[in-house]
Each structure stands twice: as structure tokens, then as C-alpha cells.
Amino acid sequence: MALTILKKTPIHAVVKITGSGATTVTLATDLITTNQVASTPKVNISAIYWSVPGTSEATVKRNSITQWSLVGAYSYQFNGFSDISENTSDIVVTLPAGGGTVVLELLKVDGYNNTQHRNPADGEP
């Protein structure tokens, strides 16, 4: 398995996983930018793109719980929302023996020292 970071900003990341087998996107290390520190990071999935040959299945798991089962070639783009399930857990992508590709668009919503997200719960308007 190969993990490629396609984009990494203080609040956004795009990762590409190719090959076969399992790989882990580690929130506290893989997604940090220069001079950024992660402390209990929260990362939501905002889009998923995949291509898996035949009827084989790829999975996206967080905290050992399957969040997404992916077959064929397709994409989900969450317009106006994101998948917050188990968002404090690393992301494990498993591709079948025949290989494949999964691209995840991620929102770094908390736990990184210089994110630009505004949180109304913290008293901001």
C-alpha cells in the first residue's frame, strides 16, 4: 500500500491510498503542516473517491468500525456536511488483493494548533 498526501493545509487534507492491503492515515502525524502540532485531533471525511476492480471491496474503518464499503468506481461528495463518525480515530483503508485506489478529502476540525475553523460553541459569533 502506498499513502500519498495530495494536499495539506491547516484545515484541509487530501490523501490517496493505492495498491493492496491495509494502510493507516495517522491523524496526529500524517496530516500536520509545517509548525503545526496535533493534540487530540478531530478529522471529518468530506469526500471519498474510489476505483476498485471487479466486485472486490475496499473498506474505510475508524476505531475498527467499518464506516464505508467501496465497490467499483464512484465518489461521494458531502455538500454542506461531512462524516463525523469516529472522527478522533485514525483512518484505516484496506484495498483488496487485486489493488485499487481510494482518495479521501478530509477536514481538520479540531486538535491542530493553528486551524482556522471558527467554533460558535467557543463563544465566537
Give a description of the structure.
This protein is an all-beta fold. It has no helices and 7 strands. Strand 1 (2-8) and strand 2 form a beta hairpin. The termini are far apart.
Radius of gyration: 15 Å
Helix content: under 10%
Gross geometry: globular
Number of strands: 7
**Main beta sheet:** 7 strands, antiparallel
Poorly predicted parts: none
Class derived from helix and strand content: mainly beta
Tell me the series of helices and strands, N- to C-terminal: EEEEEEE
Mean pLDDT: 91
Short description:
With 125 residues, this protein is mainly beta.
Give the helix/strand layout:
Layout: E1 2-8, E2 12-18, E3 21-25, E4 38-62, E5 65-77, E6 91-95, E7 101-112
Antiparallel strand pairs: 1-2, 2-7, 3-6, 4-5, 4-6, 4-7
